[in-house]
Specification:
Layout lengths: L3 H14 L24 H7 L2 E3 L2 H9 L6 E2 L15 E2 L8 H7 L3 E5 L3 H11 L3 E4 L4 H14 L3 H21 L7 E8 L2 E5 L4 H8 L3 E2 L8 E2 L3 H7 L3 E6 L3 H14 L7 H4 L3 E3 L13 H12 L11
C-alpha cells in the first residue's frame, strides 16, 4: 500500500502534469487521494518517496534537484553519480527491466517522453506509477524541471536552474542579433542507415536555438525518411551529422556514404567543405545540462569567420 506521502504526491502530479505537452506527462494510475489531507509538507513527502529514473538525462535532472533515487539506469558511457552508487541498476534506458522495477516498488518511475509509446503500456501492465519528461528540447527540459520541482518540493532548486538558463539564453540571443544564420540539413545516423532530424528533435532544437534554419522545418515529426534527391533540392548551406548510437560505426558509415554515393558531390555544402560531424555526447537524443557546450560548438560552425557558402572552388 502506498504511503500518504505517495498519495499526496500523486495528487500534485495529476493536477499539474495531466495531458501536459510541454513538460511531464502522466496518464495512469489515477491518484488515490488528491486532497492533501496528510498534513505533510511537499519536502517531507519527497524525502519518503521511492523514485526510479530510467535514463541518464532524467537521473542528472534528479541529481540537480537534490532528489534521492532508488533505481538508476545502466550506462557504459556515463558514470553513475556517487550519490546514487548504492541505487539499484534497472537496466538499459531504452528497455528498463520491468521485473527489477516492480521489485523496487517505486512511488514514481521517471522516463523521457521520447519513449512513451514503448514504455507506457509496460508500466501500466506492471501497475507502476509513472511520469514522462519532455527532453526533446532545452526549454522542454526546463519546463519539466519546474513541474518536478513543484511535485517533489524542490521549487527553489528548480527555479534556480530555470533562472540560470533564462539568463544564459537571453545573453546568447543578444550576441547573435546581427548574425545571418545559415540553412542546415541535419542527419541522424543509426547503425546501417540515417534519417533527417527536424527542429522537433533534440539536435534540431539546438540548431534552432543557435539560429540555424532547418531546411526540413515546419513539420510535427522529429525525424523524416527523405531521399537524397529531395535533400539536394533543399540546397542547405551546411550538413550536420550525428549518431543515435554506436558513434564510431555510424560516423564510418557516413564517411563511406559520402565517398561512394555520387549524389553528395553535387551538394553545395559538400563542395564548400561545410559538412560537420557532431559528438553524440553533446547532440544525442535527449536534452541535458551539456547544452551550453553544444551551443558553443554550433557557434563555431554556424558563424565561423571566413565561412564559404558560395559554392564552387
Amino acid at each position: 500500500m502506498r504511503s500518504k506521502a505517495g498519495k499526496f504526491a500523486a495528487g500534485i502530479l495529476c493536477a499539474l502534469l495531466l495531458s501536459s505537452v510541454t513538460g511531464c506527462v502522466n496518464q495512469h494510475p489515477a491518484a488515490e487521494d488528491t486532497d492533501g489531507s496528510s498534513g505533510q509538507s511537499e519536502e517531507t513527502a519527497a524525502e519518503e518517496l521511492r523514485i526510479a529514473a530510467t535514463s541518464v538525462a532524467v537521473m542528472q535532472i534528479c541529481e540537480k534537484l537534490d532528489l534521492d533515487l532508488a533505481g538508476v539506469p545502466h550506462s557504459d558511457l556515463t558514470d553513475i553519480p556517487e550519490r546514487y552508487e548504492t541505487a539499484e541498476s534497472i537496466g538499459s534506458p531504452m528497455s528498463p527491466d520491468l521485473e527489477i522495477l516492480s521489485q523496487l516498488d517505486p512511488d514514481w518511475v521517471l522516463s523521457p517522453a521520447s519513449l512513451i509509446n514503448d514504455l507506457q503500456p509496460k508500466y501500466e501492465e506492471a501497475g507502476l506509477r509513472y511520469a514522462f519528461l519532455n527532453l526533446k528540447s532545452v526549454p522542454g527540459m526546463f519546463k519539466s524541471i519546474q513541474e518536478l520541482g513543484e511535485l517533489f518540493g524542490r521549487t527553489d532548486e528548480a527555479q534556480k536552474l530555470v533562472g540560470e538558463f533564462e539568463s544564459y539564453y537571453a545573453d546568447y540571443q543578444e550576441s547573435h542579433e546581427d548574425d545571418t544564420p545559415p540553412t542546415v540539413l541535419i542527419l541522424m545516423g543509426l547503425p546501417g542507415s540515417y534519417v533527417v532530424a527536424t527542429e522537433n528533435s533534440y539536435v534540431g532544437s539546438l540548431v534552432e536555438m543557435a539560429g540555424g534554419i532547418n531546411v526540413y522545418g515546419g513539420t510535427e515529426d522529429e525525424f523524416l525518411n527523405v531521399n537524397t534527391e529531395d535533400m539536394l533540392q533543399k540546397d542547405p548551406d551546411m550538413i550536420l551529422r550525428t549518431a543515435h548510437a554506436m558513434p564510431e560505426s555510424v560516423m564510418q558509415m557516413f564517411a563511406e556514404e559520402f565517398d561512394t554515393n555520387d549524389i553528395w558531390k553535387h551538394f553545395r555544402a559538400v563542395q564548400c567543405g561545410q559538412v560537420y560531424d557532431l559528438s553524440n555526447e553533446e547532440f544525442g537524443m535527449s536534452a541535458n545540462f551539456n547544452y551550453q557546450n553544444a551551443l558553443k560548438t554550433l557557434d563555431e560552425i554556424l558563424y565561423a569567420d571566413g565561412l564559404n557558402l558560395s559554392g564552387g572552388e
